[in-house]
User: Which sequence fits this backbone?
C-alpha cells in the first residue's frame, strides 16, 4: 500500500483559500472551537444555508484531522449533513474524506468513497496538490480492493502528465490490471471509453487466455503492438511484458537434470524426471526448438564436485539436486557459473549464492497457507496437533511465525507419535483431562462423590491437524467424542492420500485441507493428457510428478519471476512466485471432505503486507 500522506501544509493552504472565498461570516458560532463532532454538528444547525453549514463542518473536520482527531473528523465527514455535498464543496469534501480514509485505514469507508470518486478526481486540484491528491486516491482504491480503479486512475494520470516517469507508470498500470478479476476486466472492457483505456484492457484480457506459454504470450504482445501502434504502452512496454518478449530468445536450450535415480530416493527422482520430460513433450512450443535435456544420477556423488563437473560443459541450466544435504554443499559459493534450480530448500539461514533458485513441495508453504486461511475466516485461537520429528519441527516453526504475523494465537500445540494413545492425546488437547482433574480435586475437597460431566475448553476457534490419513481418520471421530465435533479442522495435504477413497475417508468429513491443483482440479488438461503413458501418477508419486512438470515450466520463466515484481506462474503444484532470495513460494488449492470425497473451496482471500485482508470472498 502507498504510505505517502497528504502534507497538512498543502491541505491547509487549499482550505484557507476555500474558506476565504466562501466565508463563514453569517455563522454566529464561527469563533467556536468545538472539541467533539457532536457539538460541531449541533452548531452547524445555526447556519443560514446548507452550503454555509457544510463549509463550517468541513473546516472543523480539517482542524480535527490536523490535530490528529481523525475519529471525530470521520463522524463529521460521514454525517447526514455531508451525505450530499453541494457542488462548490465536493472537491474539498473528497480531499478530506480521502485523507480520513487513509489515516484510519477504514476499508468500509474506502469502499463507499471509491463508489463516489471519479478516476480523474485528483486532477480537480491545484497543480501543487495534484500529486498528493493522486496518492490519496490510489490509497483509497487500494483499501477498497479496487485494482481496476487504480489502473484507470494511473491511465488518466499518464494522459495528463508531461513529467511523470512513463516506464514506472506503465509498470504500475500493468500490475494493477494483473490484480483485477477476470469478470471485472471483461465488464469494463465492454464499456470502456478512450483509446488508451481500450488498448490497456485488450492487452490484459488477451494475456489472460488459459494455457499460454511464454512463446504464445510473446507473439500475442507483438501482435498487440502492431494493432495499437499509437498506444503509449506499444513503444514502452511494461517491464514484465518486455521481459516476456525476450523469454523465447533466452530460453535455456541445454538443460541438465541432476537427480537421485538409484539409492533410497530413486523413486522420487524418477517421478520428478518423468514429470519434467512429460511437460517438455506436452509443450508444443518446444517442437521447433533445439532443446537438449540430459539426466545425471546424483546418488553417491558429492554434489559440489558434481556441479563443477557438469558446469564444464556449459549447460544453460542445471535442475537439482533433490537432497537437502547436497543443496547445502553449494551454499558456500559466492555465485553459480551455471544457474541452478534446486529441488529443495536450505534451512541454514545462509544467503543463497547468486543464480541459485530453490523450489520444492515445502511444509512451510502449507503451514503459511493454513494460517492465512484461518485469519481470513476470523478463526484466531487454535489448537495444533503435529507429529514429532524434524518435518513437524519445520511445520510448527513456519505455522507459528505466520500465525503471529496475522495476530492469531496458538493456544496449545501437542506433538505426538503414531504409536501414542490417540484417545489420550485428543482428551488432553481439548482440555478434557484438565476438566476431569478439576472434578477430582472438588471431590477430594468436599470428601464425597459429585455428579460430573467433562467439558472441553471453550476458548478454541479451530483445530489444526497435521497427520497422515490413517491417523487423521482416528483423530476426527475422537474430537467429536470429546465434545469438539463443532470445531472446524484444518490440515495440510498430508491428510489426503491423493486419490478418492470415499469408504475410508468418510471419517475425515468436513476437514478442510490444502493440496496441489494437480490433485484437486477436476479438469486438468495436462493430467488427462499424460494419463495413458503415465497411468500410476497419483498419491505422493503423483505430487512429485507434478513437481517435475513445474520444474520444467520454471526453467523457462526464471528470468521473469526473478526480475519482475508480482510475476507468477500457474503450475501443477500451485501459483508459483519468487521471493527476493530466489525461493519459490507456492499457493495451493483448498478443499474439504464431503462424504469422503474432496470438494473444492474458494481460494483464500489475499493478505496485504500488514497481514490484513485486501478483499473478502464469501464461501458458497
Assistant:
Amino acid at each position: 500500500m502507498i504510505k505517502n500522506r497528504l502534507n497538512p501544509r498543502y491541505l491547509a493552504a487549499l482550505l484557507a483559500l476555500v474558506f476565504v472565498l466562501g466565508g463563514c461570516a453569517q455563522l454566529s458560532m464561527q469563533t467556536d472551537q468545538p472539541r467533539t463532532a457532536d457539538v460541531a454538528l449541533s452548531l452547524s444547525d445555526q447556519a443560514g444555508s446548507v452550503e454555509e453549514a457544510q463549509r463550517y463542518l468541513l473546516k472543523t473536520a480539517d482542524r480535527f484531522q490536523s490535530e490528529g482527531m481523525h475519529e471525530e473528523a470521520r463522524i463529521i465527514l460521514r454525517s447526514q449533513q455531508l451525505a450530499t455535498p453541494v457542488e462548490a464543496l465536493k472537491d474539498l469534501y473528497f480531499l478530506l474524506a480521502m485523507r480520513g480514509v487513509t489515516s484510519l485505514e477504514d476499508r468500509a469507508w474506502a469502499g463507499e468513497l471509491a463508489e463516489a470518486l471519479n478516476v480523474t478526481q485528483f486532477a480537480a486540484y491545484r497543480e501543487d496538490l495534484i500529486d498528493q491528491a493522486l496518492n490519496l486516491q490510489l490509497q483509497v482504491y487500494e483499501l477498497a480492493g479496487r485494482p481496476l480503479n487504480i489502473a484507470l486512475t494511473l491511465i488518466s494520470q499518464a494522459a495528463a502528465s508531461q513529467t511523470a516517469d512513463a516506464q514506472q507508470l506503465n509498470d504500475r498500470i500493468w500490475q494493477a490490471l494483473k490484480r483485477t478479476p477476470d469478470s471485472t476486466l471483461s465488464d469494463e472492457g465492454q464499456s470502456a471509453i478512450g483509446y488508451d483505456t481500450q488498448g490497456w484492457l485488450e492487452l490484459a484480457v488477451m494475456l489472460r487466455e488459459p494455457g499460454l506459454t511464454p512463446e504464445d504470450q510473446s507473439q500475442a504482445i507483438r501482435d498487440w503492438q502492431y494493432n495499437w501502434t499509437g498506444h503509449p504502452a506499444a513503444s514502452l512496454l511494461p517491464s514484465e511484458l518486455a521481459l516476456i518478449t525476450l523469454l523465447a530468445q533466452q530460453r535455456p536450450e541445454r538443460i541438465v537434470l541432476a537427480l537421485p535415480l538409484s539409492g533410497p530416493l530413486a523413486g522420487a527422482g524418477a517421478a520428478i524426471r518423468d514429470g519434467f520430460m512429460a511437460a517438455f513433450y506436452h509443450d508444443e512450443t518446444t517442437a521447433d526448438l533445439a532443446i537438449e535435456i540430459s539426466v545425471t544420477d546424483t546418488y553417491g556423488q558429492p554434489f559440489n564436485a558434481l556441479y563443477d563437473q557438469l558446469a564444464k560443459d556449459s549447460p544453460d541450466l542445471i535442475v537439482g539436486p533433490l537432497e537437502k544435504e547436497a543443496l547445502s554443499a553449494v551454499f558456500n559459493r559466492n555465485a553459480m557459473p551455471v544457474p541452478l534450480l534446486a529441488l529443495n530448500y536450505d534451512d541454514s539461514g545462509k544467503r543463497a549464492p547468486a543464480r541459485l533458485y530453490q523450489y520444492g513441495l515445502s511444509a512451510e508453504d502449507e503451514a503459511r497457507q493454513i494460517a492465512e486461511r484461518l485469519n481470513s475466516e476470523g478463526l484466531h485461537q487454535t489448537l495444533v496437533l503435529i507429529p514429532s520429528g524434524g518435518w513437524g519441527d519445520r511445520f510448527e516453526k513456519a505455522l507459528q511465525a505466520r500465525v503471529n504475523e496475522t495476530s492469531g494465537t496458538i493456544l496449545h500445540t501437542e506433538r505426538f507419535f503414531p504409536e501414542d494413545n490417540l484417545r489420550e492425546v485428543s482428551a488432553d488437547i481439548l482440555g478434557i483431562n484438565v476438566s476431569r482433574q478439576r472434578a477430582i480435586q472438588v471431590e477430594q475437597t468436599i470428601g464425597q462423590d459429585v455428579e460430573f460431566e467433562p467439558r472441553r475448553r471453550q476458548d478454541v476457534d479451530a483445530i489444526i491437524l497435521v497427520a497422515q490419513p490413517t491417523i487423521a481418520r482416528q483423530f476426527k471421530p475422537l474430537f467429536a467424542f470429546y465434545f469438539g465435533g463443532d470445531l472446524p479442522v484444518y490440515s495440510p495435504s498430508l491428510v489426503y492420500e491423493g486419490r478418492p477413497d470415499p469408504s475410508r475417508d468418510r471419517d475425515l468429513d468436513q476437514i478442510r485441507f490444502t493440496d496441489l491443483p494437480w490433485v484437486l482440479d477436476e479438469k486438468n488438461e495436462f493430467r488427462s493428457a499424460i494419463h495413458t503413458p503415465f497411468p500410476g501418477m497419483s498419491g505422493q508419486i503423483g505430487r512429485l510428478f507434478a513437481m517435475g512438470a513445474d520444474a520444467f515450466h520454471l526453467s523457462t520463466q526464471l528470468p521473469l519471476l526473478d526480475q519482475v515484481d508480482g510475476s507468477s506462474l500457474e503450475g501443477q503444484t500451485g501459483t508459483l512466485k519468487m521471493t527476493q532470495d530466489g525461493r519459490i513460494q507456492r499457493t495451493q488449492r483448498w478443499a474439504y471432505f464431503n462424504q469422503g470425497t474432496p470438494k473444492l473451496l474458494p481460494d483464500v482471500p489475499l493478505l496485504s503486507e500488514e497481514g490484513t485482508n485486501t478483499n473478502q470472498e464469501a464461501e458458497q
